[in-house]
Amino acid sequence: MLVTFLIGGPLAAIGAGHWMYHAGMTEARAQAAERHSGQAVLLGPTLPAVGKAAARRDDQAWAWAQWEGAGDAPRTGKVLATVGTPAGSVITVWLDASGKLAGPPLQPGQITDRIIVVAVLAPTVLALSLLTALWLTQRLVDKRRLAAWDASWSRVGPQWTRRRP
Question: Rounded to two decimals, what is the model's pTM?
Answer without folding.
Answer: 0.69
